[in-house]
């Protein structure tokens, strides 16, 4: 009877196709919550930054989210290996929804960053648990058969997210609440729905419970290692990269890294990230490539929605739709590579082609210009999508294929963890680089003769400067420059007129003193002399400064209504301003507050907005060059990536087969069988005769 049971246990699959579909249904709900949030926030972040007057602090919002989610990812993986995937996945959904509610009450970018950190605590589980569960229930080669469901979720969220985010960002109020706050409130009903679906459908067979130690030291030291280093990556430009606080962060982070390695070494198999995983060259290389790809992908890709809105003038909704070439590329590459992997069990070519395509996309984007077309950018985004589609699932499958059932969760979360570290560093470093370069690039843009001439001519034109659509950019950028220039010019001209009138007045006074003119005629003579001096000085002043006007009382003013006179004035002024911009870093146009609220660019005269757009374009190009360098390194490493064939069984099936083999062995021993059953890789001792 025992033998029969064992045979049955060994022959029957752990989960039927119908059960697998139900589990995937539950995973899809949680993944939709996380994927939709990322696309909505990415589309609306400019509007949020403008409303909270802190767009230049955007990196705090994204970095806080990624820091916490990165740290939480391996913790979820380890705890799920101990207590099961389902309860940890449920906890992740609840925490994420709570963080979303809190984020909707933000009154500043730093406050939003704190609440996004709470969201990140939940997102760490939403990102890692589905991958670990898929690793449990599906063999590596079979996952491609089911990935269409997940691609559908990602595709739908990628399309709906920008539309919903754009709708919320573009609305002043919805139900008496600021439109952008619904970017976070929308997660509440979706989260509740996901919570119900997971409770109903996400049921996974539990393996044998084992007693383990929880790696509290590992969790503590990983926080000690990551937080200071990520903070200095974000705030280094403000603190100074060699400032006391930055050096302190370097030291604390370095000590944390050393302490983390020691703690993991002492915890052995119970470690948060067991060091034995790195004995596998496949896992190690997949991890390194994942870090580099994450650095380039997360950091550089966050500039795309900003670029589309700031430089190309797209609305938040339009910018979301304009990202579709990248989404299309990801889906095509992911489906195509998945089908090939399912049929052949080999995948070495995809990291090579993926990193090459990703590098090609970033190289393409280094050639963008501020006045270029959207379709040129779409070509670069398509290449990036094709690269990412071949890399994301391939690197995860490689990591899972290199470990057994016991370490499936921790290997999956470790792979996600290191990719998130790369993404977090990329976000902090590249966005910091973007906003660090902006003030300098704005100065360089104004130092360009043609750009400065057009901008200054428009700013001095009374019709342009007085237009409602230009009021914000004039106040933010040009009024300080124009006021300084006109005040200096007027003062200089007024001084010349005053000198002429003073000389005329003194000449009359001298004539009276010498007896050449009766004292009774002094006042009238003075008025006549002053008028004559003003009349004589006016043509000379207007010859040197065509826009100069001198009133009858000698008051000097500037009139920029005549285009020719204004053009002549600007032509004389531009060389002087160019020298000032070339030699000074302290100008109104380059102040950091310029980037805290970019709404002044909406509908502004193109000549006025051009310097800002040129500066942002130059900064973005530098970011793409850096991302290209990192991805090229990943490409070189992928050439040495060793990829053994994928296993044909899922982790749960392997565990069930092993259990069945052990049961069969025991049954054979009890029956006194002279010939042990076929137990595969399980060695059965021969019965004693």
From TrEMBL:
InterPro entries, sorted: EmrB-like, MFS, MFS_dom, MFS_trans_sf
Domain of life from the UniProt record: Bacteria
SUPFAM superfamilies, per the entry: MFS general substrate transporter
Alphabetized UniProt keyword annotations: Cell membrane, Membrane, Transmembrane, Transmembrane helix, Transport
Compartments in which it is found: Cell membrane
Residue intervals of the Major facilitator superfamily (MFS) profile domain: 23-465
Membrane topology label: Multi-pass membrane protein
Alphabetical list of NCBIfam families matching this protein: efflux_EmrB
Annotated protein name in UniProt: MFS transporter
Organism phylogeny: Bacteria, Bacillati, Actinomycetota, Actinomycetes, Micrococcales
């Amino acid at each position: 009877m025992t033998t029969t049971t064992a045979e049955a246990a060994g022959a029957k699959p752990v989960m039927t196709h119908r059960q697998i579909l139900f589990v995937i249904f539950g995973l899809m709900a949680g993944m939709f919550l996380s994927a939709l949030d990322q696309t909505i926030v990415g589309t609306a972040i400019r509007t949020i930054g403008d409303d909270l007057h802190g767009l230049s602090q955007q990196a705090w919002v994204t970095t806080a989210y990624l820091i916490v989610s990165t740290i939480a990812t391996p913790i979820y993986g380890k705890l799920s290996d101990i207590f099961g995937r389902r309860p940890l996945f449920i906890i992740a959904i609840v925490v994420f929804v709570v963080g979303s509610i809190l984020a909707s009450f933000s009154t500043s970018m730093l406050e939003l960053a704190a609440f996004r950190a709470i969201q990140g605590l939940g997102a760490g589980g939403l990102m890692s648990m589905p991958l670990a569960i898929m690793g449990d229930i599906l063999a590596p080669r079979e996952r491609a058969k089911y990935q269409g469901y997940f691609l559908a979720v990602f595709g739908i969220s990628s399309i709906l997210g920008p539309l919903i985010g754009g709708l919320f960002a573009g609305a002043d109020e919805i139900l008496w609440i600021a439109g952008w706050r619904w970017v976070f409130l929308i997660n509440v009903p979706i989260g509740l729905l996901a919570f119900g679906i997971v409770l109903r459908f996400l049921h996974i067979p539990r393996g044998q419970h084992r007693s383990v130690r929880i790696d509290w030291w590992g969790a503590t030291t990983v926080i000690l290692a990551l937080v200071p280093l990520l903070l200095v990556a974000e705030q280094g430009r403000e603190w100074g990269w060699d400032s006391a606080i930055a050096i302190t962060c370097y030291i604390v982070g370095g000590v944390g890294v050393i302490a983390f390695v020691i703690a993991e070494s002492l915890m052995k198999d119970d470690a948060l990230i067991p060091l034995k995983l790195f004995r596998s060259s496949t896992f190690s290389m997949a991890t390194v490539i994942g870090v580099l790809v994450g650095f380039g992908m997360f950091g550089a890709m966050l500039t795309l929605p900003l670029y589309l809105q700031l430089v190309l003038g797209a609305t938040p909704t339009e910018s979301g739709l304009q990202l579709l070439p990248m989404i299309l590329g990801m889906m095509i590459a992911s489906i195509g590579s998945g089908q090939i992997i399912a049929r052949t069990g080999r995948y070495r070519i995809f990291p090579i082609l993926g990193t090459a395509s990703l590098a090609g996309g970033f190289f393409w984007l280094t050639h963008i210009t501020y006045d270029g077309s959207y379709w040129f950018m779409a070509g670069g985004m398509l290449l990036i999508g094709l690269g990412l589609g071949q890399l994301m699932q391939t690197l995860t499958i490689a990591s899972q294929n290199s470990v057994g059932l016991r370490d499936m969760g921790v290997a999956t979360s470790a792979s996600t963890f290191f990719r998130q570290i790369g993404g977090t560093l990329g976000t902090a470093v590249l966005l910091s680089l973007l906003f660090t370069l902006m003030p300098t690039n704005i100065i360089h843009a104004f130092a360009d003769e043609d750009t400065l001439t057009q901008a200054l001519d428009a700013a001095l034109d009374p019709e342009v400067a007085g237009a409602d659509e230009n009021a914000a950019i004039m106040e933010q950028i040009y009024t300080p420059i124009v006021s300084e220039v006109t005040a200096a010019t007027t003062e200089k001209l007024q001084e010349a007129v005053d000198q002429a009138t003073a000389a005329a007045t003194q000449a009359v006074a001298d004539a009276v003193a010498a007896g050449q003119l009766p004292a009774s005629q002094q006042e009238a003579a003075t008025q006549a002399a002053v008028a004559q001096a003003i009349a004589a000085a006016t043509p000379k002043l207007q010859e040197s400064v065509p826009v100069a006007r001198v009133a009858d009382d000698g008051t000097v003013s500037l009139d920029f209504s005549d285009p020719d006179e204004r053009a002549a004035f600007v032509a004389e002024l531009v060389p002087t301003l160019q020298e000032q911009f070339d030699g000074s870093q302290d100008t109104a146009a380059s102040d950091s507050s310029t980037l805290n609220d970019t709404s002044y660019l909406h509908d502004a005269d193109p000549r006025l907005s051009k310097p800002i757009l040129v500066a942002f374009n130059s900064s973005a190009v530098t970011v793409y060059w850096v991302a290209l360098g990192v991805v090229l390194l990943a490409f070189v490493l992928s050439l040495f990536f060793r990829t053994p064939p994928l296993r044909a069984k899922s982790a749960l099936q392997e565990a069930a087969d092993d259990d069945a083999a052990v049961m069969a062995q025991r049954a054979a021993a009890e029956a006194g069988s002279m010939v042990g059953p076929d137990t595969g890789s399980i060695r059965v001792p021969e019965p004693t005769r």
